[in-house]
Amino acid sequence: MMHMTFYWGKKVTLLFDFWRTDSWTSYAITLLACFIFALFYQYMEDRRQRFRIISANFRRNYPSPPSAAVNAPLLYTFPTVGGKWNSARFATAILFGINSAIGYMLMLAVMSFNGGVFVAIVLGLAIGYLLFRIGDEDDVSVDNPCACA
């Protein structure tokens, strides 16, 4: 039967029926795998953000919008090289899909309600943020000064 509250113990079924732990060794390997997947999630999020920034900088190299767009800045769209499907946007979308899948798998792993799995994933996310994403605040640029955007 599945636990519905947090518990601490070495017996865990994680994500799939074949991923069961019954010894401290298999439990430790499972916690290490959760930690590494959480680190990888933050790494992939960093890569996705960098592709997004590259794509945005690539669009900024175009001349300024026509004067009619200045009066309605929220309606203006920047042209993209190669149409709407340039390689930077495509790579960003692929990375978003991979990162979403990893994030949902981490969420489902936490829903095993095992305290060790929860701690391993949270520590992995925090250390991954520290290693890979701590400088993200410097890369953020606000294109739209509207607070609701």
From TrEMBL:
Membrane topology: Multi-pass membrane protein
Superkingdom, taxonomy of origin: Eukaryota
Keyword presence, Nucleotide-binding: no
Listed transmembrane segments: 24-44, 90-107, 113-132
Classification via InterPro entries: Cop_transporter
Keywords of this entry: Copper, Copper transport, Ion transport, Membrane, Transmembrane, Transmembrane helix, Transport
Subcellular location(s) of the protein: Membrane
Record flagged with keyword Zinc-finger: no
Family to which the UniProt record says this protein belongs: Belongs to the copper transporter (Ctr) (TC 1.A.56) family. SLC31A subfamily.
Name listed for the protein in its UniProt record: Copper transport protein
